[in-house]
Amino acid sequence: MAAEGNAVAPKAAPAAADGAATAPPPLRDYAIDAWSSRNGLPHNSLRDMAQTPDGYLWFATWEGVVRYNGVAFTVFDRGSEPGLRDNGVGALYVDPQGRLWLSDSRGNLAWLAGNGRWEFVERTPQWPQALIHDLAMDGRGRLWLLFEGHGLGCLHPDGRFDYLAAPPQVPLRASFPRMAIDAGDRIWIGTLDGLVMRDDAGRWHRFGADAGLPSGLVWPYVAPDGTLWVAAEGQVFRHHGNGFARVHALPGAGHFTSMLQDRHGALWLGTENRGVARIGVHGVEWLAPGPVLPRGRIASLLEDAEGSVWVGANGGLFRLRETLFSSWTRRDGLGGDYVRAVLEDRDGTLWVGGGGGLDRQVPGGGFRPVPLPGAGGGTASVLSLAQGADGDLWVGTFADGVYRLRDGVLLRRYGQADGVPSGHVRALAADRGGAVWVGTRRGVVRIDAAGVHPPPPVPDLPDGLVTALAVIGEDLWIGSVAGASVLRGGTRVERLDLDAAGGGARTVFGFQQVDGRTWIATDRGLFRHRDGGLARIGLEQGLPVDAVFQLVPDREGAAWITSNRGVLRVPMAALREHADGTARRPLAVQRYTEIDGLPSAQGNGSSAPAAILRRDGTLWVATAAGIASADPARLRRYLDRPPPPAVIESVQLDGQALDWRSRDSLPGGARVTVAYAGLSYLLPERIGYRTRLHGLDEDWIERGTQRAVEFIGLPPGEYTLEVAAAHPEGGWSAQPARWTFGVRPLWWQRTDVRAAALLAVLLGLFALVQRYRASNRRLARLVDERTDDLRHQASRLEAADREKQELLDRLSAHAELLERHAYQDALTGLPNRRAFEEVATRQLAQASAGGAPLALAILDIDHFKRINDERSHAVGDEVLRDFARVIRQACRPEDFLARTGGEEFVLLLPGVELPRAREVCERVRRAVERSGLERTAQGLAVTVSVGVAERAGAHGLDVLMQAADQALYRAKRLGRNRVQAAGEA
Q1: What spatial distance separates the first Cα and last Cα of the chain, rounded to whole Å?
Q2: DSSP H helical segments within 530-654, as ranges?
Q3: Nearest by Cα to 366 from 338, 336, 330
Q4: What are the C-alpha distances in Å from 964 to residues 279, 702, 903?
Q5: Beta pairing, strands 619-623 & 611-613
Q6: Is 962 helix (H, G, I), strand (E, B) or coil?
Q7: Which residues fall within 8 angstroms of residue 221, CB to CB, at 6 or more apart?
Q8: Which residues are catalytic?
Q9: 158-196: pLDDT as tens digits
Q10: Which of 351, 333, 331, 332 is CA-nearest to residue 343?
Q11: What span, in angstroms and rounded, lies between the C-alpha atoms of 598 and 611?
C-alpha cells in the first residue's frame, strides 16, 4: 500500500467552475503517493524513469530495474529470469521506435526485445567499462552514451561503435548524469564546470558568462516542444540564437538535479535538497521536504501518459496526481482537523465548526479561528451552524450551549441558565419569523428576541436527542434517535413511519428538499417523502453503505451523499426511479475516498450542516480529518481518462511459470492460470476487467477487479484469450491483450486412439453378429435333435447382449466421471480449484452486496515434500486423503473446503469475521496435530500452517487470496504448525 500525503505550498482559493475544467489545480491540491523498499522497491534511490508504449513504468535503481503495473513491482536483476549483467542500473531510454534501452555501472548496454528478454550489445575493446550516465538518440538513429569519468560513445544503427574521448579544456569527465540532443543533433551536456555542447560536425563548445550562464553545475533539458532549457544556480535559462536568456529565478533553490516540462507547459525542477519546484500558471510553487518527501536529491522526473508526475528521489518514489477533492486542515489555519459542520453565509463567507472550535475562511483560501470561549477557559467544540433571518450566525456546541455572532463578533451565549438543556446541540434551524430552533438532548427549544422558549406543548413531539433540523416552508422537520417527525404549523406533530418503508431505520441525520420532495438521510439509507408517502433506498437498491448523513444535489444532476465510508455520487434521476419503483437496474454509485483527495473517508453525522453546495457550485464536506471541497464541473476532467491498455503479464501451467511468449502449444488436462493488468496508475485498484476465450466462450465474461483467470482441463483445440480493462464509468480497451495457444489432446482424446477404439467396437459387434448368424444356422439344422443346445446358444446371445449394454454403461459412467473430475479433486474427493473459484466469487459478491463478513484460509501441509521423498508418493497420497478427512470433520457444516493443488487447501468461511475465523482455523490446526496422521506417514510428523484473511471493501477474490497467502507465508517463516491472520504481527 502506497503512503499518501499532500504537497506543501500556499493554499489558493477554489478556481471558478469554467477554469477548473481546463487549468491544472495548484500544486497544493495534488495528492502524493509514496513508495519505498517497504512497498516492494529493491532500493530507495531512483536514478531514472521511463514509460514504454505498452504503458509500463520502469525505474532504474542500484539493485536492478523495476517494472511497475500500478499494483506490483517486478524486479529484474542478475538473479532474475530474464536477468541483467549488473544490478547497478545507470539510465533508461525509450527510443523513437518504442524500444526500452538500459545501461549499468559496468558499461553494459541492453534493450528489451519483444519476447520479454534483454538483448545485450557486445562491447568493443575501446568501450569503457564504466557507468553509463545517460542515453539519447539523435535524428539519424545514433544512440549516444555518456560515460562517467570518460567521454562519449556512439552506437550506429548498423551496430558500429565509436568512442569519443574528452578533448582538452572540455570538462566532460565531470559531467552530470544527463545530456540532451536537440533537433539539430547537437548534444548538450551539463557538467560540474558549466555547459558543453558537441555539434553535428564534431566540434565542442563551452558556454559560460559570455553566453549569459553562470559557472558551476548546470542542467540541460530539451522539452517536448523542442525548447532547450538550462537550469543553474537557482536560475532557469532558455536558449535562443547563440545565447541564453534568464526566464526564472528561484532564490535559495541551490543546485538543480532534474527538469521536466509537462503537457500544460509548466516547468518542474528537482533540487539537491530543497524538494521540487513547479513554475506555471500558479507562479512558483514548492513541494518542500517534509512528512512525505524526504530531504535529499531529486534524481529524476517523469510525466506519465495520464498526466501524473513521478519523482525519483534518493529516499524513494513519489507520484503527484490530480484529485477530485481538495482538503483543508490545521496546516491551513483550521483550529482542528475533526470537522463537524460547514456553512456559507449570505455574504459568501465560509464558516467551519469542529472539535477545534469555529473557523472563518479568509481571502486567499486559508482559515482564521473565531474565539468562542468555553467552560473552563477552553475553546468550545462546535457541532452545528445556522444563519438567522437577520444575518446573525448561530453556533451549537457540544457542552457550551448556543453562541450568537454578528460579523464574527460574539453577541451572546445561551446556556443552561437561559433554558437551553446542557450538551449536544447537534442541529440548528432558523425560520422566516426570525426565531432559531435548537436541537438538544431533550428535544427542541426555540430562541427569539424574547429569549429561550421551552418545547411547545404538542403531543408526540420528540423529547430525546435531536440529530437533525430543517425548516421547510412553514414546517419544522425534526430528526432524532427515535426517527423523523414534522411539526406542522407549530400546533401538531406528524410522525413519519420509517418502519413501514422497510429497513429498520432509527436515527435521522439530515433533511434535504429537492424538487418539492424531502429526502431523509438515516442509519438505514435514504428515504423520500412525497405526498405523505415514504420510499426507501438502501443496500438492496445498490447503496454501498447503511448510514448516510447528508444528501446535497449539485447543478449537474447528481446527488452527493456523505457517509462514514466516503462520499457517494448518484444521479438524481436514478434515485427518483428507485423511489418511484420504476428502476430496472441497481443504482450506479461512485464512491470517493482518500484516494480521490478526501482527507478522510469518514464524514460526520449527527451534526449540521455536514455538507453544502456553495453559490459557486462547489461541494464542501465535513470529515474527521479536515474539510474537503470538490467542483462537480471538474468531474468530467477527472473521469475522462482513456481506457487503460490491457497486458498479459504471466502464465502458469500447473503452478509453474510458463514462457508463454514462445510457447504456442500446451498439454491437455493442465491448469492454466493467466495474470493480466490494466496499465493505469491513477486508481489501479478500481480498474475492471473482462475476458473472452475464443474457442470456448464467444461472449465477454466480466471479472470485476480480478487480475487473473484460470482454466482447468481445456478440451483439445485452438484458443485465443482476450483481456480488456476499463476505468469505472469508462469504456473498455480498444485493443484487448491477446494470447493465442493450442491445447494438445490427452492420449485418450487423440483422433487415432478414438478411431482405433471405435474400430475395435465395430469389429467386436461384427464378430458377435457373425457368431449369432452361425449359431442360427446350426440351430436350424439341429432343431429337432438339439433342443437343449438351442436353449444354451440363446443364453449365450443374451449374455452377449448384456455385455454390450455393460460396455455402453461403462462408457456413460466414464463420461460422467470426466464431468465430475472437472469440479472434483480425484485424490481427496474434495472440490477442486475450479469449483472453489466459482463458489468463492459468488459468495464474495453476495457478501459485498450485503455487507456481510467473509473469511478465507489457505492451509499448507508442513514439509510435505519430505513425506513423498522419504516414504514414497503412494504414502503422500494416503496422507492427503486422510488430511482432507480430518479437515472436513473439524470444519463447520457451512464452511467450504477445496484442494487447489499439491498439499495446498483453501477454506471459505462465510459470515465469519477475522477473530472468529482464526479460532476456526486454530481448531483445524489442533485437529491435524492430534489426528495421528504420523501413522499414515510412517513415523513422520504431519502438521499444517494456515494463513487467514477477511474480505475488505469491494476488493475481488485475487486480493483476498493474496492477503491469505501472505499470512500463510508469514506462518511458515515463523516456524510452521501455526495460524497466522492477515495484518497480525
Answers
A1: 17
A2: 572-580, 635-639
A3: 330
A4: 46, 24, 16
A5: antiparallel
A6: helix
A7: 178, 180, 228, 229, 230, 231, 259, 260, 261
A8: 903
A9: 999 999 988 888 888 888 778 999 999 999 999 888 899
A10: 351
A11: 13
Total Cβ atoms within 10 A of residue 408? 13
Residue where the block lists cell 521506435: 97
Parallel/antiparallel/unpaired status of strands 3-6 and 235-240: unpaired
From residue 440, alpha-carbon distances to 565, 587, 973 in Å are 27, 35, 56
Which residue reads 470426466 in cell numbers? 818
Amino acid letter, 944:
V
Question: In angstroms, rounded to a whole number, what is the distance separating the alpha carbons of residues 396 and 436?
Answer: 11
Helices 751-781 and 787-821: crossing angle in degrees, nearest 10, is 160
- Cα–Cα dist 181/196, whole Å: 12
Considering only CA atoms, give the Rg of the chain.
37
State the amino acid at position 751 in one-letter form: T
pTM for the model stands at 0.68
Give the position of cell 510525466: 303
Distance CA 588, CA 948 (A): 32
| 308 grid coordinates | 501524473
For residue 421, the 8-state DSSP code is: -
| CA 904 from centroid of its chain's CA atoms | 28
Q: Provide mean pLDDT across the span 21-40.
A: 84
Which cell is 104 given?
A: 549499468
Euclidean distance between CA atoms 507 and 498, whole angstroms:
10
**Nearest-angstrom CA–CA distance, 226 and 479:** 63
Q: Which residue has the cell 504456442?
A: 664
Instruction: Say how far residue 600 (Cα) sits from the centre of its chain.
Output: 16
The answer to whether 414 and 431 have CB atoms below 8 angstroms apart is: no
427-430 and 688-694 beta bridge pairing? unpaired
Residues 6+ apart with CB under 8 A from 299: 45, 46, 47, 48, 257, 258, 270, 312, 313, 314
The predicted-structure confidence for 483-514, as pLDDT tens digits, reads as follows: 999 999 888 999 999 998 888 899 999 999 99
> By three-state DSSP, how is residue 377 classified?
helix
Q: How many CB atoms lie within 10 A of CB 818?
A: 11
**Whole-angstrom Cα distance, residue 621 to residue 611?**
4
Under the banding of pLDDT at 50, 70 and 90, the label for residue 794 is low
Contacting residues for 417 by C-beta, under 8 A, at least 6 apart: none
- Residue 288, judged by CB atoms within 10 A of its CB (0-12, 13-18, 19+), counts as middle
Chain CA centroid to CA 371, Å: 42
CA distance 965 to 689: 22
For residues 83 and 118, give the distance between their C-alpha atoms in angstroms, rounded to a whole number.
7
Q: How far apart are CA 173 and CA 151, in angstroms?
A: 7
